[in-house]
Amino acid sequence: MNRYDDLLQDTIDLHCHVDLEFSETLFRKRGPEDEWLPAAERSGMRGVVLKSHLWPTVSVVPFIRRLYEGPVEVWPSITLNGATGGIDLWSVEAAYHQGARTVFLPTWGSVNDLRNGGFHRRLADAFEWFRPERLCVQRVIDDDGKPTDDVRDLVRFCRDHGLTLATGHVSWQESLAVAEEAAAVGLERLVCSHPLSNSVRAPLDAVRRVAELGAYAEVCWTNIAPGRKDPAEVVAAIREIGLDRVVVATDYFTGAVPQPSDLFRLTLGTLHDAGLTAAEIHRVAAENPARALGLE
Fold first, then answer.
1. Structural domain span for residue 174
2. Where does the pLDDT of residue 115 fall: very low under 50, low under 70, confident under 90, or very high at 90 and above?
3. What is the CATH classification number for the domain harbouring 158?
4. pLDDT of res. 1
5. 263: part of which helix (H) or strand (E)?
6. Angle formed by the axes of helices 149-161 and 172-185, to 10°?
């Protein structure tokens, strides 16, 4: 093992997309989960949260666990896009009873995504019957900038049932409103999804404020990939946000990148080379994610 391998010990990837997400060909990954989980085990990873933009992963994780019986944990999730009913508490309740650990606010079904030409455009290109103009998009905040009643109920449900809430592709203003609500009612397991990404574009002051309210700010490989942000600038941002309030994940999504444990090594190694110490890497990739999932 070298120093980059050591960085993966006990790490948790909070943002890893499932292989069969849209179709047998569209956005397929490097391989099915049972093929890469043994590599994650050899690398020393503790677990991954499996995400899908389309369907809840609660129905596939039990089969993955039967194919892979090793120690790496695989936690299912639900993303509240139109395919699952949007921000509708009964679908969250059903996912909870099937073992979901994380709830993601809308991604391609968010107001932010539709207004800014986000991921929904790729679905419109791929699916003949996908019509963005017909999407039933639920707002996260009202005209006064306050969380809607549905979101308020969701925050309380996550608090009461030990679920982690992540903000998906909603705007940074919406994420801030959700963080304020979470702080007010005592939800400690809130993750602000990739706020530095092109899909969210949060100013650093807003990310710091979310962290001050008790949420975790997520940094992903997609933030520091070639052509994106300078890794040294991201490390500086991590320090400004506060190491105790940052989680690092992969946002593993395409077959163009290495399989998850290798991509996590690349992500953490890049941040390490850009200035984060091994101890700091462990904090943002192992300790903080475990707390965000309620494991510690």
1. 3-292
2. confident
3. 3.20.20.140
4. 64
5. helix 260-273
6. 50
Answer for the pair 76, 58: CB distance below 8 angstroms, yes or no.
yes
- As a whole number, mean pLDDT of residues 33-59 equals 96
CA dist., res. 107 & res. 110, Å (int):
5
Tokens of 229: 């942000």
CA within 13 Å, CB half, 153: 10
Tokens of 211: 């962290």
- pLDDT of 124 > 90? The answer is no
Structure tokens that stand for 60 in this block: 């596939």
Please count the structural domains in the chain.
1
Strand, helix or coil for residue 1? coil
Nearest to 14 by CA among 192, 248, 264: 248
Cα gap 227→240, rounded to integer Å: 23
Among left, alpha and beta (phi > 0; psi -120 to 50; other), residue 199 is: alpha
